[in-house]
Amino acid sequence: MMKLDYLYHPYQSVRNTVFAKRGMVASSQPLAAQAGLEILQKGGNAIDAAIATAATLTVVEPTSNGIGSDAFALVWTKGKLHGLNASGPAPQSISIEAVKRKGHEKMPAYGVIPITVPGAPSAWAVLSEKFGRLPLTEVLAPAIRYAEEGFPLTPVLGKNWKLAFRRFQTSFKGDMFRPWFDTFAPNGRVPEIGEVWKSPDHAAALREIAETKAESFYRGRLAEKISGYVQKWGGFLEQEDLAAYHPEWVEPISTRYRGFDVWEIPPNGQGLVALMALSIARGFDFREKDSADTYHKQIEAMKLAFTDGKTFITDAGEMKADITHLLSEDYAHTRRKLIGETALAPKPYDLPKSGTVYLAAADGDGNMVSYIQSNYMGFGSGIVVPGTGIALQNRGHDFSLDEAHVNALKAGKKTYHTIIPGFLTKDGEAVGPFGVMGGYMQPQGHVQVLMNTIDFHLHPQQALDAPRWQWLEGKKVLVEPNFPNHLVQALIQKGHDIRVAADTGSFGRGEIIWRDSGTGVLMGGTESRADGTVAAW
After folding, report:
1. pLDDT tens digits for 4-34?
2. Out of 356, 388, 425, 526, which one is annotated catalytic?
3. Which of 110, 195, 269, 373 could form a disulfide with 69 if both were Cys (CB 3.0 to 4.6 A apart)?
4. Is 78 exposed, middle or buried (0-12, 13-18, 19+ CB in 10 A)?
5. Region 154-166 average pLDDT
């Protein structure tokens, strides 16, 4: 029997779960997953495939990411897990006072002010340099082809594109935003589902990034264009900020859960929230998935962990809390004791005195990648650099203009970051990559998908398809439309303020690839809430 049997009940249905041997790519967009598979079949490894998929997603899912995104990755190769933080810092010329002088009492969501240094192109370049087999020019070729020749919009993509356009018609005023409309709403409208959209400027920028190994983006012609446009409209990002940037290799952090090790990127990412929640939850015995007691304890563990995460997480160099302590059993036990039979209104832990795209890739040689990149809030800042197709992120929106806040704006500082890749190991061997994109839903999705897998023995597709909940604040919890009504009523009896969502749009979109350590067989699932595909061979 397969060694993956320790996860799964032998009589469960595995409908729609994909099995393969030589390679697999799971993504929220079919063409992007196929791009990664194309690179695998040309002799690339899982890292090459992940880069190809990520670059293609900037073309075929611009509602969630772009060339101007940030990125994070967990890479398993040769028996070791590597972490990459490719999020960028605030510009050196920015300050709380400078933003307030421009008339803002809080960080704006759109425009040039919330733009920090984008990290995604640097992630592609360093991943390729350190682990890739194929040249970056070949790896980015599918993305360039789709940008030049065009592609037809898929249903979820088309819906999100249209919703964004309607919102931006109201919020994007002035010539500063004109390139966004020229790029994504040519002729005054967005493309329809099934209609072909192309972006030759996007293709040219990707080709330049490929040929220069991203040097042009940070220290060349593209850097000049990016900084010049931001400066033209009164932003803070300068060419020197781009030139000084390099992504960081970091040591992943983990917690033990039911014999597995769950891995995340350390702060400034919010993966710590998922680990703290699992540390709290491991003290309970979850005997039944669809019970009010199970959901109650999951929600309570998550709200305590999230409250602490929002209190402590910021740039790693400025965190006041010790990560080792927050992942300790002492912390977990202290928080766990607060969970009773009714819903809490959580308060932060007292320290002891002293929008996004996710993809997973695997190859037949054991390499596996958990990768995520995002512009934030859908299309990001709304700023597209003319003549390049580069849509810039707005990660600076998460900074606070309150000097006493843990995430207070500061030059050169990295903000609290929502995007997080996850990875699972057991006994020192890779089980595989997993992720659930979607802002503050991400750690909540990680916990639910992992508990579905480990506690309740669901296969990847089942673990992703199961109805989700989302803690919002206080006692307020949002659940999906298909969440069982009898459980909604039972949770209300426990004091939770349950709201049933109108659709599944805010509950995240995930991918999973598990690997059998004995046979090398890969098992993948993709998000039913998106246009997702598992491409395999």
Report:
1. 665 655 545 556 899 999 999 999 999 999 9
2. 356
3. 373
4. exposed
5. 94
CB 368 within 8 A of CB 76: yes
Q: What is the pLDDT of residues 218-275, one digit of tens each?
A: 999 999 999 999 999 999 999 999 999 999 999 999 999 999 999 999 999 999 999 9
**The dihedral of CA 373, 379, 383, 385: what is its sign?**
positive
Phi, psi values for residue 323, rounded to 5°: -60, -40
Phi, psi of 338 (to 5 degrees): -80, -15
Structure tokens at 349: 């832990």
Q: Enumerate the domain spans of the chain.
A: 25-248+357-398
Phi first, then psi, for residue 389 (nearest 5°) are 70, 5
Per-residue confidence (pLDDT) for residue 486, from 0 to 100 = 97
Q: Which amino acid is at 11?
A: Y
If we measure between CA atoms, which residue out of 351, 354, 320, 322 comes closest to residue 335?
351
Return the amino acid letter for 382. G
CA distances from 72 to 148, 306, 373, 422, 493 (A): 27, 20, 7, 10, 40
d(CA 269, CA 415) in angstroms, rounded, equals 9
Does the active-site annotation cover 356?
yes
- Cα pseudo-dihedral 194, 200, 205, 208, rounded to 10: 120
Residue 368 φ then ψ, to 5°: -145, 145
Crossing angle of helices 46-60/141-149, nearest 10°? Answer: 20
Task: Work out the number of other CB atoms within 10 angstroms of the CB of residue 178.
Answer: 12
- The torsion defined by the Cα of 327, 332, 463 and 285, in degrees rounded to 10, comes to 140
Helical segments of 387-459, H only: 442-454
DSSP state of 400: B
Task: Tell me the two tokens of residue 96.
Answer: 């709380």
Q: Which whole-number Å values give the CA distances from 465 to 269, 397, 436, 483, 516, in the listed order?
A: 25, 31, 12, 11, 22
Q: What is the CA radius of gyration of the chain?
A: 22
Q: Measured between alpha carbons, how far is 333 from 273 in angstroms, rounded to an integer?
A: 16
CA distance 481 to 507: 11
Tell me the Ramachandran region of residue 59: left when phi exceeds 0, alpha when psi lies from -120 to 50, beta otherwise: alpha
85, pLDDT greater than 90? yes
What 3-state class would DSSP assign to 505? coil
Q: Which two tokens stand for residue 118?
A: 């984008």
3-class SS at 316?
helix
Looking at the chain, the whole-number percentage of residues with pLDDT higher than 70 is: 96
Residues 399, 90: contact at Cβ < 8 Å? yes
Q: What is the pLDDT of residue 1?
A: 31
CA distance 481 to 194: 27
Residue 208 CA to residue 216 CA, distance in Å, equals 7
Rounded mean pLDDT, 153-159? 95
